[in-house]
Amino acid sequence: MKIQSKELYNALKKLKITVVSKLPILNYVYMNVKNNTITMFTTDLEKVNKAIILCVTGEEEEWSTCLPMVLIYNSTCHPIYYVKKYKGYPFMDFIKVCSEDSDVLNFMYNKLIETVTITGENYKANFKCFSSDEFPIKFCEEKV
After folding, report:
1. 76-95: per-residue pLDDT in tens?
2. Which domains does the chain have, with CATH numbers?
3. Cβ neighbours of residue 81 closer than 8 Å, sequence gap 6 or more
4. Reduced to 3 DSSP states, what percent helix, strand and coil does the chain have, rounded to the nearest 5?
5. 18 secondary structure, DSSP code
């Protein structure tokens, strides 16, 4: 499945999570691929964000997974050993870099090991995913 990186990045900006949840699955974006359409959701169990984009080309694929939208990184500052927390957006940041080159991205999902491999003309990344079964998709669909 191929996707325009700029279109995907614009959709992810609408879905951006600003508050880190204590429930890990809520820090991920739900992605459902069906009929050359990608439907994505994020939620904090109060507010639901939804975005839909079309694939550029690709075979008829059908899959869903959850990609990391926001993660917390700990950093120890030497010499006082103060632990500082940083917020990171691994998936979104990668797509942003790709969109600067207007890259068309190829997504390949491996259900056995729950990973998505994204390749572009100049880029490649693997993302470890959560199973889509963990995401509160029924709640999201009812709210939207």
Report:
1. 665 556 666 667 788 999 99
2. 2-143 (3.10.150.10)
3. none
4. 25, 45, 30
5. -
